[in-house]
Design a protein that fits this description.
Lyase, Ornithine Decarboxylase, Chain A, domain 1, TIM Barrel, binds pyridoxal-5'-phosphate, 430 residues, alpha/beta, single chain, eight-stranded parallel beta barrel
């Protein structure tokens, strides 16, 4: 089955080799070394356009898209998000610092976090336009900070725990189920709203997020109903905000193709909000969607070099120069990937290959038993759908240095993050 639709939209096979944005991957690997991460600007832009177009088509009220920075955050992607008029969702003070360094103005920064520290909240007061409140204890800290604050207080949204799970590929990527650590129950949200009223805190929105990497918007509908019930009960005023989170999925493997479009998701949400507002005689909220993966995942490709091949029983291992330190998703929750060789990607897939990294963990695997053309030591492979939750969850395990990241657009390649060095590994030691 054709694997190219997993890759960025500008990917081609030219002279029997993979190119993205017209640039030969072999040449990029030569220039920047491997492992190497590539982001394709055209693919990022096409995903944003799809969100904006679908919102304009299906939602009659005001709407906005927030980039979930947890998917991948760097100054370059923040600059891109700001240029595309996206808000940036930051979890905690560290991500806020990156967003500010990348030029996001406070009005475009929204702060999440399930147990925000005082430092996180202080940073949010200084640098953000919105705080999504996770729990009542956090709200008490916000009240104390508000009393001391010389700045204006960020607007507050309540994070509702809808108690409805979406179907994701693993329990660890679900967040909306009734026993989740995230957000407030309906009753807690009522108490939180009362607290805001009593202490004159600027509450004007409701948020929930049910999970990440789902492909059917149906389970969002009861959660949207619950959120709108809460909004009606709270009477948030004429200009209020409603955010049913992010989480729309991406196809990682050819078996998951075709993935339903961004429009299917947006239409499902927009119609539910529209109809729910009409039946409750609620004014249309500013509808926020908060995608990370469906904006960034397909735009990213990870390039690795094969160092050795081993045959072990029925298994053929291709050992590469990256792995769980730049992409822990297989180790964390058995994520399934596909792959192509950079040279001869159309070759006959005559072997079942498992792809593993150089680190001292048997779980340092990226792919198991994938039909591939015969691989040999020294050649390059490209793993698609590498743009979300790889580098943002990366580590220095075994002294690994995080790879360089290059942005491809309009035929030019720009280094946006250099590879880490040995000096970087020692920077914190005293
Ligand atoms: C609150 C919140 N918003 C948005 C997202 C983005 O999810 P995704 O990258 O799947 O769109 C997440 C991810 O877990 C999240 O927790």
């Amino acid at each position: 089955m054709n694997r190219l639709p997993l890759f960025p939209i500008t990917t081609k096979i030219e002279n029997d080799c993979l190119t993205i944005d017209g640039q030969a991957l072999a040449q990029l690997a030569e220039q920047y070394g491997t492992p190497l991460y590539l982001y394709d600007g055209a693919t990022l832009n096409a995903a944003v356009d799809a969100y904006h177009h679908a919102l304009a088509t299906h939602y009659p009220g005001p709407a906005s898209v927030t980039y979930a920075g947890k998917a991948y955050l760097s100054m370059a992607i923040v600059r891109w998000a700001v240029a595309r008029n996206l808000l940036v969702d930051c979890t905690g003070a560290g991500e806020i610092a990156i967003a500010r360094a990348g030029g996001a103005p406070p009005a475009q920064i929204l702060v999440h976090g399930v147990n925000k520290s005082l430092a996180d909240l202080r940073s949010a007061f200084e640098h953000a336009g919105t705080i999504v409140v996770d729990n009542l204890d956090e709200l008490k800290k916000i009240k104390a900070l508000a009393a001391d604050s010389h700045n204006s207080i960020p607007q507050l949204w309540l994070r509702l725990l809808p108690g409805v799970a979406v179907s994701t590929h693993h329990a660890h990527t679900q967040t909306g189920q009734h026993d989740s650590k995230f957000g407030m129950t309906y009753e807690e949200a009522l108490t939180a709203a009362e607290f805001c009223k009593e202490h004159h805190l600027p509450l004007n929105g409701i948020h929930f997020h049910q999970g990440s990497n789902f492909r059917d918007p149906e389970p969002l509908l009861p959660a949207i109903e619950l959120g709108l019930d809460l909004a009606q009960r709270l009477g948030l005023g004429d200009e209020w905000h409603f955010c049913p989170g992010g989480g729309w999925g991406a196809a990682y493997h050819e078996d998951e193709l075709p993935h339903p479009s961004i429009e299917v998701y947006v239409r499902g949400v927009a119609e539910a909000v529209k109809e729910g507002c009409a039946s409750r005689k609620l004014r249309h909220p500013m509808l926020h969607l908060e995608p990370g993966r469906s904006l960034a995942a397909r735009a990213g490709v990870a390039l690795y070099r094969v160092g050795a091949i081993k045959k072990r029983g029925a298994k053929t291992w291709a050992l590469i120069d990256g792995g769980m330190t730049d992409n822990p998703r297989f180790a964390l929750y058995g994520a399934r990937y596909s792959c192509l060789p950079v040279s001869g990607p159309g070759g006959e897939r005559s072997e079942l290959v498992s792809i593993a990294g150089p680190y001292c963990e048997s779980g340092d695997v990226l792919i198991e038993d994938l039909p591939m053309p015969k691989l040999k030591a020294g050649e390059l492979i490209a793993i698609p759908v590498a743009g979300a939750y790889h580098l943002s969850m990366s580590s220095n395990y075994n002294g690994a240095r995080r790879p360089a990241v290059v942005w491809l657009e309009h035929g030019s390649a720009k280094l946006i993050q250099r590879a880490e060095t040995f000096e970087d590994l020692l920077k914190r030691d005293v």
